[in-house]
Write a structure and sequence with these properties.
heterodimer; A: about 270 residues; mainly alpha; 2 domains; about 70% helix; globular; B: Rossmann fold; six-stranded mixed β-sheet
């Protein structure tokens, strides 16, 4: 059951998006999200939606996986839409108590829901096509200008922490499963009882897990020291991130989409 | 009468994902009451998966496990009762300790079975006596003990449930020779005191030769042999083929034979080796 938890959702495939530089992908994702929110009328938003769906097609990740992400966020989406429906000015169609349903409200709700949905799709496209490690590397690169404003080592340390955290998620899941099995073998009851019983039942699992996490942290720190780790200074990379023709393609694509949204915004 | 019977057991990990993996394939065997069964096999041969079926931690994809002629999954709600009858000591059991005192930790299992008060206390003390946990340790924190002592306490935690069948997954892994001997002694003491049936997974062929009544050999999820250590180790070629070994003494006798010395090939323990060599050389007292 613990194996169902998704952390980094990388889906291996050989698409244009997989080959592209993660730094470019992050920048373009932010750009597109901004433009999705700039899209002010029906036509530009529809254009944005079509563009996002073509990006999903280009990613060569099964559409089912995107829908899975969407399903998780669906309650939030519906909630936002409903709030938007009743909120704000406009000619009421139906009203009861302090709520009034307006035509403007409904269109606002549809706009909002669609924007959030597109936002989720596009960020899923990033996480499905980029490994967690590439993502952290890219974030480190993108944030590296911060070292000129006094945060010399902070960016590297943050990125290292993220990498280590990601690296240890599967290890800890495996460990948790082992401890759970061991305690179950001693008759621990994890499945029944009230809320308090269930929380109490977690203690025999959490304590050994915490101890092993601390033990692993010590071991890792020692191993890193043995290899002369001293922070980011002077560190070189095994995998250099380089720009390629793929990045040119996806950048032009993103510029086209943004341009299209602006044009449709102004013209119609 | 067979206490534990496994019939056509298969287990597949990751049923609906692309990572399908047959960990155990169509394994059948039966264990008599009071036997010591050894399980040997290469890493990833399905030993650990197999033993997790014996107490219902894993549900077979196919096949049944019978305890006292009753399917352990007949009533899934009662599976916790099975777990107190078939104790399972995992690899590195000391990492499952969590209570503030040794006493509380050993009491965890019996408490889950519903024991309380004096009965619980007596059970813990009795168990400690049986396997030599010193009474003054009971009030200590388990995290202050040495590695070997921790393991002893963790094993006591399972034994305190008084399982009729007790399964050990590599009980001596990571211990020094003295620690290994200690653990083996604990297992023997428990067996003497309770007539329990014992199943041990081990990489030590020496331990298997010394202890086991019968040995199960696993390879790639399949049961390849299930016989007495004598029979199993005398098919040494087959064992070597699947990446396992025979006891060191046995290997010495293989080499002696190759050198042209006429010695038997069914020597698995040092004691037996001494006997055989004495017969040949004619020592005064064997």
């Amino acid at each position: 059951m613990l194996k169902d938890i998704t952390f980094g959702q990388f889906y291996d495939s050989k698409s244009l998006l997989h080959k592209a530089d993660p730094r470019i992908k992050i920048v373009l994702m932010v750009l597109l999200i901004v433009f999705i929110f700039i899209a002010g009328n029906m036509y530009s938003l529809a254009f944005a939606a079509v563009s996002v769906f073509s990006i999903l097609l280009v990613s060569k990740v099964p559409f089912k996986l995107y829908l899975k992400n969407m399903k998780a966020i669906l309650p939030v989406l519906i909630f936002t839409a409903i709030i938007n429906m009743f909120y704000g000015e406009g000619e009421p169609i139906v009203s009861f108590w302090i709520f009034s349903l307006t035509l403007e409200g409904i269109s606002r709700a549809i706009f909002m829901a669609l924007r959030i949905a597109l936002l989720i799709f596009i960020s899923s496209a990033l996480t499905y096509t980029t490994t967690p490690n590439d993502l952290t590397d890219a974030i480190e690169h993108l944030l590296s200008p911060l070292k000129y404003v006094g945060l010399k080592n902070a960016v590297h340390i943050m990125a290292m922490m993220m990498t280590i955290a990601l690296r240890f998620i599967p290890t800890l899941i495996e460990e948790a499963e082992k401890v759970m099995n061991a305690q179950k073998a001693r008759g621990a009851d994890l499945e029944s009882g009230g809320l308090i019983d269930r929380v109490k039942a977690l203690i025999p699992i959490l304590i050994p897990l915490l101890l092993s996490a601390v033990r692993r942290a010590y071991e890792l720190a020692e191993a890193m020291e043995c290899r002369c780790y001293n922070g980011g200074e002077g560190k070189t990379r095994m995998k250099q991130m380089t720009l390629s023709v793929c990045d040119l393609w996806i950048s032009s694509g993103a510029v086209l989409i943004s341009g299209g949204i602006i044009v449709l915004n102004i013209l119609i | 009468m067979a206490i534990l019977e496994v019939k056509g057991l298969s287990h597949t990990y990751g049923g609906n994902t692309p990572f399908i993996n047959d960990a155990v394939k169509d394994v059948s065997f039966s264990i008599e009451k009071g036997e010591i069964i050894g399980i040997i096999g290469h890493t990833g041969s399905g030993k650990s998966t197999l033993v997790q079926h014996l107490n219902g931690l894993l549900k077979p994809t196919d096949g049944t496990v019978l305890l006292d002629n009753e399917d352990i999954w007949k009533n899934p709600r009662e599976i916790r009762k099975v777990r107190s009858q078939v104790g399972l000591v995992f690899q590195y059991p000391e990492y499952q300790l969590f209570e503030e005192t040794v006493f509380a930790d050993i009491a965890f299992g019996p408490k889950n079975m519903g024991l309380e008060g004096d009965e619980l206390k007596n059970r813990v003390i009795e168990t400690c006596k049986m396997i030599g946990v010193k009474p003054e340790y009971l009030e200590k924190s388990p995290f202050d003990l040495s590695g070997g002592e921790k393991r002893r306490v963790a094993i006591a935690g399972v034994m305190a449930m008084r399982p009729k069948v007790i399964v050990f997954d590599e009980p001596t892994a990571g211990l020094d020779p003295k620690g290994r001997e200690n653990v083996m002694q604990i297992i023997k003491s428990y067996r003497e005191a309770t007539d329990a049936t014992v199943v041990i997974i081990s990489h030590s062929m020496e331990d298997m030769a010394l202890l086991a009544d019968r040995v199960i050999v696993m390879n790639k999820g399949e049961l390849v042999m299930f016989d007495t250590p004598e029979k199993v180790f005398s098919s040494g070629e087959k064992l070597l083929e699947i990446g396992l070994n025979v006891p060191i003494v046995t290997r010495v006798f293989y080499e002696l034979k190759k050198l042209g010395v006429n010695v038997p090939q069914d020597v698995f323990t040092v004691e037996r080796a001494v006997e055989v060599l004495c017969e040949i050389r004619g020592c005064k007292d064997a």
